[in-house]
Write a structure and sequence with these properties.
By secondary structure, the protein is an alpha+beta fold. Helices cover 30% and strands 33% of the residues. It has helices at residues 6-13, 19-30, 34-51, 60-77, 96-103; strands spanning 83-84, 87-91, 112-118, 122-130, 137-145, 157-162, 165-171, 177-183, 187-194, 197-205. The strands form two sheets. The chain has a five-stranded mixed beta sheet, with no helix packed on it. A hairpin with a 6-residue loop joins β4 (122-130) and β5 (137-145). α1 (6-13) packs across α3.
């Protein structure tokens, strides 16, 4: 499911959602959505503060109206993520496709593919390699601070897209490493959400999708 609307989060916090919807929301949190976790933390703080003040009592109707007003303001003021341009520094397949075209020969698909991308602040190391026991590939990546940068990316959200739809998502570990396993052959896009914006890596072909 996508991000949880703030009015539904308010109902979830107060135990006013049905069990099926509650399970969906909990699964969404477990997938690592930082935006929804921040909204829930804010709502929890508001509830905790108001619970300590017995000078007034809000009815359910008033609470619903306040949440609706906040939701409209938040949706209207949310700024788009800064797009960070990533430059391809290295691709283990280059210049193999050009050599093949010159010789007029065909060659088997490579067993792996390694790429290195760089932004001003980050280096992104990617590797496609054959999955054990399947016809697909594993994608292993690492998000690191560039040598000239003092920015520590920390654990960040990584989304894998295919034809514009999210195929999978995960978070990097303490060393910046992430992994997607047994990907069907094809071409994918990657979105990496660091603190200062979104890194977009497009048209990444698996070893069988080239």
């Amino acid at each position: 499911m996508g991000c949880v609307p703030i009015d539904i989060l308010a109902d979830y916090l107060r135990g006013h959602v049905d069990p099926a919807r509650q399970d969906e929301i909990m699964a969404h949190f477990a997938a690592g959505c930082g935006d929804c976790q921040q909204r829930l933390a804010w709502l929890s703080e508001v509830v905790a503060v108001t619970a300590q003040d017995d000078s007034f009592v809000f009815s359910e109707v008033v609470i619903a109206r306040i949440v609706a007003q906040f939701k409209g303001r938040m949706d209207g003021e949310r700024a788009p993520l800064r797009q960070l341009v990533a430059q391809l520094i290295f691709d283990s397949l280059f210049p193999a496709p050009f050599a093949e075209a010159r010789e007029g020969l065909s060659s088997p698909a490579p067993a792996s593919r390694q790429m290195l991308f760089r932004t001003e602040e980050y280096d992104i190391d990617l590797r496609f390699e054959k999955s054990d026991g399947t016809a697909g590939d594993d994608l292993i990546g690492q998000v690191m601070a560039a040598e000239q940068s003092r920015t520590d990316p920390g654990p960040v959200l990584v989304r894998l897209l295919r034809e514009g739809e999210t195929a999978a998502q995960t978070r990097t570990n303490a060393r910046g490493v992430f992994r997607f396993s047994a990907l069907p052959p094809g071409v994918y896009d990657l979105r990496i959400y660091v603190a200062d914006g979104e890194i977009r890596l497009d048209r990444l072909a698996t070893t069988m999708g080239i």
